Amino acid sequence: MSMNKLELDRHHELAAFLRNRRARIAPEQVGLPRGTRRRTPGLRRGEVALLAGVTPEWYSKLEQGRDIHVSVQLLESLASVLELDADERTYLFLLALRQPPPVEMSSLVTINPAFQQFLRQLGPTPACVIDARLNVVEWNAAFHATIGGYSTIVSERERNMIWRLFTPPLVRQESEEWQKLARVFLAQFRAGYGRFINDPWWGTQIAELSRISPAFRELWSHHDVLNRPEGCKSIRHPLVGELTLDFFLLQPVDSCDLRLLIYSPRSNSGTAEKIERLLAFE
After folding, report:
1. Is 71 exposed, middle or buried (0-12, 13-18, 19+ CB in 10 A)?
2. What are the Cα distances from residue 218, in Å, to 170, 186, 188, 210?
3. What are phi and psi of 136, to 5 degrees?
4. What is the 3-state secondary structure (H, E, C) of 115-148?
5. Is 102 a member of any domain?
6. Omega of the bond leading into 169 within 30 degrees of 0 (cis)
């Protein structure tokens, strides 16, 4: 199958998807009169175009499967007009731009209850859930006891792993271990930036970190990209001393924007036993 045929199939599927979703929306749902001359259900093409802020001719070409340019802003407008849910919105972006939609700035992250239960069952293994921007959004007791510092944080910025890595008091660029850790997570951060480059949040975050952190500017200029982060992390805990952890990320099959970050205690290091002691203090 040629690439041209694949592209044609993608455009035709996008057109069929838009027609199908347009037919689901009654005029009354969007504040339009039904009238007496409608022969088909749902909205007309011209009505969708009007509500989305484009010309009827342009929207007709989109529904005809023509190869025309679409912007993120237009797709967001169509998703709103057609009242698409999160899965449908993602499907629309994948068909139109071959990339997922931007992370919504104001959207609340919903953690699957099974995810939360799994976190609790990990015992002395610290773990947390992070979103596409590397914000920590959920964690277990072992993570709180070892990594800590998130329970009293309200702002998204302070829950962002990159922000915490490159700003005081956690920045330790003179440490070889810090350099390795920062490279891994910053490369993961850049991979996310490539997925959501049209989301202005990323540019704002990168500009601010570049302004205040020489270490960030230096490492960001390397353009490292990594989608399978793993490595090791050592923590000097004030109560139990050195903790040695191997970390890795797991991607759940039902979410492209949430991942599970697990810090596994290194075998024969005594770390698991020390974390057990910390949990007993809680």
Report:
1. exposed
2. 17, 11, 16, 9
3. -80, 120
4. HHHHHHCCCCCCEEEEECCCEEEEECHHHHHHCC
5. no
6. yes
For residues 164 and 255, state if they share a domain: yes
Which domain CATH number covers 75?
1.10.260.40
Q: Are 65 and 12 in contact (CB under 8 A)?
A: yes
Do 8 and 122 belong to one domain? Answer: no
Half-sphere exposure of 254 (CA within 13 A, CB side): 6
d(CA 215, CA 233) in angstroms, rounded, equals: 19
pTM, 2 dp: 0.66
| 150: Cβ contacts below 8 Å, ≥ 6 apart | 128, 136, 139, 144, 159
Q: Are residues 256 and 193 in the same domain?
A: yes
Query: Can you give the residue range of the structural domain that contains 274?
Result: 113-281
Q: Which residue has the tokens 């191997």?
A: 246
Which residues have C-beta within 8 Å of that of residue 33, sequence separation ≥ 6? 27
Q: Per-residue pLDDT for the chain (282 aa), expressed as one digit of tens each?
A: 444 666 678 889 999 999 999 999 888 887 777 766 777 778 888 889 999 888 999 999 999 888 888 888 899 999 999 999 888 998 999 989 888 887 654 455 677 788 788 899 998 999 999 988 999 989 999 999 998 777 776 678 888 999 999 987 666 656 788 888 888 889 889 988 887 777 788 989 999 999 999 999 999 998 888 766 678 888 889 899 999 999 988 877 566 678 889 999 999 999 999 999 999 876
Domain count, the chain: 2
What is the number of H-type helices and E-type strands within the chain?
12, 5
Q: In the 8-state DSSP scheme, what is residue 108?
A: P
